[in-house]
Amino acid sequence: MKVFLLSFLLSILCLSVSSQAKGVVDDLEKLMKENKYEEAKLKLDARLPLLISSRYPDTLISYPKYIGKINAKLADDETAIRLVGAFAEKVKTAGAPPNVVFRVYLESAIFYSLKGKHSLAYETVLGVQKQVASLLSSSPVDAALAQSELGVYGYRMGNIGLSGQHHRKATSILESLAEPNYERLYNSYNSMGTIMWFSSRIDSGIYYFDKAIGALKKLPPTPENKNYRVGIVQNNLSQLYNEKGRTSEAIHTLEEGILNMKTFLASPEPNPKKDFANIRQYEFIDNLARIYRQLGDFSKGEYLLTYSFREKQKSLPANGPDIYKSLISLGGLYYEQMNYKKAEQYLLDGLKMVRMEPNPSPLWAGEACNSLSRVYDAMGNVPLAEQYFHLTDSLYEVSYQGEYDETYLDFLRESSLFYARQHQGALAISKADKGLQYIIHTQGKETLSAFQQVLNVADVQYQLGNFQQSLALGREAVSMVNNRISASTQLLDSVRAELRKPGAILLMSRSEYKLLKTDDIAGMKRLLVQLAEALDVIRRKRAIIKEPADINLMMSQNKDLLDFTKELQVRLFELTGDESLIDQVIDLHETAIYNRIRARLDKQRAVRFAEVPAEVQQQEERLLAAVSESLRSGRTESDGIHQYIAAEKSWKDFQEMLRKKYPKYYAMRYADLEKRKVSQLSRFVPDGVTVIRYFNIGGKYFALLADKNKHHWVPLQATQADEWIRQLADPSQDEKSINRLCYDLYKILWQPLEKNISNKRVMVIPDGPLYYLSFEMLVKKPVAGFRDYVAASLLSSYAISYHYSFFALEPTQSQPGRRAGFAAFVPGFSDDVKENYLSS
Q1: Is beta strand 799-802 parallel, antiparallel or unpaired with respect to 700-706?
Q2: Would you state the pLDDT for residue 20?
Q3: I need a labelling partner for 790 at 20 to 30 A (CA). Which of 158, 689, 736, 814 fits?
Q4: Which of 501, 572, 497, 559 minimizes the C-alpha distance to 530?
């Protein structure tokens, strides 16, 4: 009877085995899909002993993932991992054939890695490789598979060098076979492409990824082959296209990869790869965010990273690698947005999770430390910045083992500049030259990466005072980026290349300025022509950016360029007396402010304008939203770029309508600002009012005084102003100190101007830290106490008001927005307004 029952059970098992395809057990899949995990576990527990003792041991290969998934659902990941390991041991001790033992352990490793235990997966494959050495010596396909799996887990552990060693062995074995195994070749070529990518051998990486696509075309067109696997290669290819500056191609390829992954997940057939596909799609979205961040579109980058993080939290282990990867990526984004406190918190949280791993990933620990070093550098915490730069270097050396990707090269750039600023010249030059020589060796000099490395060496030389070397390298960098722009055939490609140009021109111009004689007027004029080209690039970039936060950030990132240009214009004015140079200073300064005002108007949709019907402004909002949403909806659709182009055309047509029908509104919001002379602007100063427009240029203060009939430009000896304003804002200051500071500030900021103030009504337009100062508080003579304060204060002599922009005094531009919108911008000077202004 027992024999009959056993035979009956085995016959049922055989039927189950015959229905398995690609490692799928139908009845267990069905129960899991119906969320009947308890019933699935009963079947599993009853079946496994019979399978182990049966004459069909090869069926055991399908079961590690079911043991893992079912027990993880009913208990926890730790229990599931322990039971999967116990099952593999039972198969081995039961005397199963070596090929079965080998595959069971490989499947067990796959489950471990799925749960984030990449080191355990690596050790598992390494161990079974030794146990079945005789099998692998006679089966090159299996030997290649073992090396390939070891390479995968080495990569996931963050050990790029170790991963490369294994993948090279796998590829060598497979290419030596007389009859190609295209499935194995696909895996091997894809992995080799990744290793080339991490070695910054971009063309070699593209070569291997193309070979991977070619191998897939030789396989049956199943959803796994035509969607899942093709999608993986598309994701990888997009990253290489991006690093080569082929940005449009990168976005399009990655969007197709995301679509392929979603198509695979939606396919009706069960497939164990769907667990990985679910994770992969979020990796793809993170990579798309990275491309937009590099374009300066931080709003889209943040939207994508936040969406991906939210979705990961819903479906992936709470403390797994994919969660800390999102935290670290978001921390890097917030650093780029200059939100340093938020960046610090995300990065520290991510680093803490990495370190909690049994075998922490040196790559991702390095990523977190890399961003933290920059955060602390930006916050002025030099000791912590240096600590994290050193830590990043050691972690990256362990991870990359001499083969560097763009991330490591970027770290070399940042660390070399940091050491240069700390006057550690030898170390700074060593780091900078290390990156440059590596790129020349792996890519040559005609790439964006090479341009960035040359520019970095130039910057280091500038920081160290070696201006002749810096100038020569700066010129070389500008020539390289010009060649790259000429070679670009797509708009976004040329945009990305051109974005690098202002920084190169600024560095070249600064170096040349340091080498000029102090009175070299012709040389300074030549530099202004160069800087005008850099400013034109910024204007073109402004035309393609829609989000207010990105506009403000763009202005902040180019503040050095604007300041140096104004500094040079002021110096030329001092040498020549040419008042057109002051016109240029004011135009540049006020245009930057106006762009920020426009960005804030875009953000504050509640503002209504008198001459524009509500329905027209509503249409404006819809069209602006459509431009943003076209790219968001296109992230999972192959026609995403076409949607964006259509939305952009509709928006341009609408702007043209505004220009014709509502010219004042169009002038306020969208028109290129007309250049004006100070003499023209003076006409808009109200009767009986003197305007004092302060400028902080190159750390020095200047003032322009203007009324209806005349204007004066006055340099101020006010280098202490910023520190005194900071002290005045300190609530711990006593009465005597406050009175002294108010008199000291009067002497440097107001007294030099008084002889040119011809009216009792004064309109102050502050700049920089002066936003923190209430000028009414200043006193015209030392006072002993608060009783004498009022009589001596400026309030007793002048009626002081404030404004935000000289340009906005013109009635045709200011009138439409006065009623509800501009109250937000006049200096009521809340702390938030001051902080936003200063940071921009």
Answers
A1: unpaired
A2: 41
A3: 689
A4: 501
How far is C-alpha 202 from the chain's CA centre? 21
- Amino acid 479 reads S
Secondary structure of 80-92 in HEC code, one letter for each residue: HHHHHHHHHHHHH
Contact criterion met (CB below 8 Å) for 292 and 304: yes
The residue count for the chain: 840
Helix H or strand E encompassing 692: strand 689-697
Quote the CA–CA distance of 578 and 574 in Å, as a whole number. 8
10 Å Cβ neighbour count for 338? Answer: 15
Q: What is the mean pLDDT of residues 666-681?
A: 71
Q: Determine phi and psi for 592, rounding to 5 degrees.
A: -60, -40
Alpha carbon of 50 to those of 45, 231, 606: distances in Å? 10, 39, 71
* Closest CA relative to residue 320, chosen from 284, 272, 275: 275
The model's pLDDT over 743-795, given as tens digits with 9 standing for 90+, comes to 999 999 999 999 999 999 999 999 988 988 999 989 999 887 777 888 889 98
- 608 backbone dihedrals φ, ψ, rounded to 5°: -120, 150
| CA-closest candidate to residue 567, choices 531, 615, 540 | 531
Q: What are the φ/ψ torsions at residue 691 (nearest 5 degrees)?
A: -95, 130
Nearest to 415 by CA among 393, 443, 442, 447: 393
Q: What is the 3-state secondary structure (H, E, C) of 206-250?
A: HHHHHHHHHHHHCCCCCHHHHHHHHHHHHHHHHHHHHHCCCHHHH
pTM: 0.57
The tokens for 164 are 């490369």
Cα 444–Cα 447–Cα 452 angle in degrees, nearest 5: 105
Listed by start position, the domains of the chain span 317-403, 678-839
Residue 585 contacts residue 697 (beta carbons within 8 Å): yes
Q: What are the backbone angles phi and psi of residue 800, rounded to the nearest 5°? A: -100, 130
Exposure pattern of 445-459 as b/e (b: 16+ CB <10 Å)? eebbbbbbbbbbbbb
CATH fold group of domain 317-403: 1.25.40
Q: How many CB atoms lie within 10 A of CB 670?
A: 11
Distance CA 200, CA 442 (A): 6
